[in-house]
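Ticket reopened. Same input as before:
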Amino acid sequence: MGQAVSKLLIENVGKVFPAQRGGQPTRALMPTALNVGDNDFITILGPSGCGKSTLLRIIGGLETASEGRILLDGSAVSGPGADRGFVFQSYTLFPWLTVAQNIAFGLREKGVVERERLDIARSWADRVGLSSFVDHFPRQLSGGMQQRTAIARALANDPKILLLDEPFGALDNQTRALMQEMLLGIWERDQKTVLFVTHDIEEAIFVGSRVVVMSARPGRIKADIAVDLPHPRPYTIKTSPEFVALKERLVEEIRAEVMASGQ
Amino acid sequence: MKPLQPISAPSRIAYGIAFFVLFVALWSVATFGGYVQKLFLADPLTMVGEGYNLLGRYGFAFDIMMTVWRVVGGFVLAVIVALPLGIMMGAYKPVEAFLEPFVSFARYLPASAFIPLLILWAGIGEAQKLLVIFIGSVFQLILMIAVAVGSIRRDLVDAAYTLGATDTSVVRRVLLPNAAPDIAEIFRLVLGWAWTYVIVAELIGSSSGIGHMITDSQALLNTGQIIFGIIVIGLIGLISDFLFKAVNQRLFPWARL
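Engineering reply: fixed in the latest deploy. New output:
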């Protein structure tokens, strides 16, 4: 496979939160190493509080690592930047901007002229199925529509890698399933490099080409499992024997971790 | 009545007017019914008549103009100073640490207590009136604007950074638009307070303005004129409030969604 080229190199990245009020410092993430190949779709799966979001935020530059370093296309990452698109679990569209203006936010930072900005924004709105909502404000949209806009906003910047932190975590099951298909469709067509954090096992298998399982806090990588399901993946694949077998295996892995963390 | 149950627009207006009617009715009963002496409280009709006199014969419109100009002038000066300072304080923590303690202290200094000092410094002319309003509003504005600018969801700022925003564009394109509706609302509130300062400033050492008319009328025991003056202030407040709300709704349609 195309694993030879590493897009993103995570070299022994760990995180310790400093002590608060005379307590002990908390280690959220053990030194972790991970190679992400070009066009990989990696899902990071783990129980809540395992440090998977911390790892993603460090890659996104929103948090600093206590140790180790991150290389994107060979150069070290420090601080957030347009080369790493980020989609948050919370709704982070700018409420004062319309859908089109939100999608074009990063383009304006880059100095793209208004006409071209709007063209790109419209075509992305179209791709996430929001072409008739370009002039709506975020508060006029459902949660699913807001997250679709957030994905379009991150992708309109044409980042080298797309980081998603439980983007569908707040959505209902039906919407969530549709969003997974939409995201997968975009990836199948555009071949983006994607890191997707989730605690939903089915979601991790359905969208990912590799599932990285993390242990309970302090987090470390416990398993790295290839998902050899064909593309394009219809939603019916979720009932196929291969899918179910993979799911059973991951359920066991995660279960052990949840028990270990005493929840 | 169900808690928080909304009501229709017509009945909202009807309720609002009903209280004014009730207020005037009670006032009429108290005055026309002879429960309160004319010397202490004029009845509504006398008040209207005195108002007509004031406007028609004593050039009260000029006083109103003077007062409005003082309020607006002092307030605009305060905004010019407070807006950049408030934004800097809200956006940058060192600036906040530098200014916040002093501004918090200064905002408790009563503007009216400065009047004797200001007369000493600036005389009894327009500069003194503007300064009273300026002192009364500038510190409040700075603090409230700083809070509005600083109270942004952290994840919106994070999102902007991941989209390639620079530090200055986070302030310009995220903090400012986020705070803009709140800042407009702060202007509306503080302008209301500025009205109380201007009257106090005009009560002392002034030859024009609504406050000046009120002190004159007090000397003549003309309660009708005093009440008319107070009602005019209330009406101007009501109109400016209404205008502010209308403008805010037009400028920031997203904030009301």
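Chain A is about 35% helix and 25% strand. Chain A touches chain B through 30 residues (CB under 8 Å). Please confirm and we'll close it.
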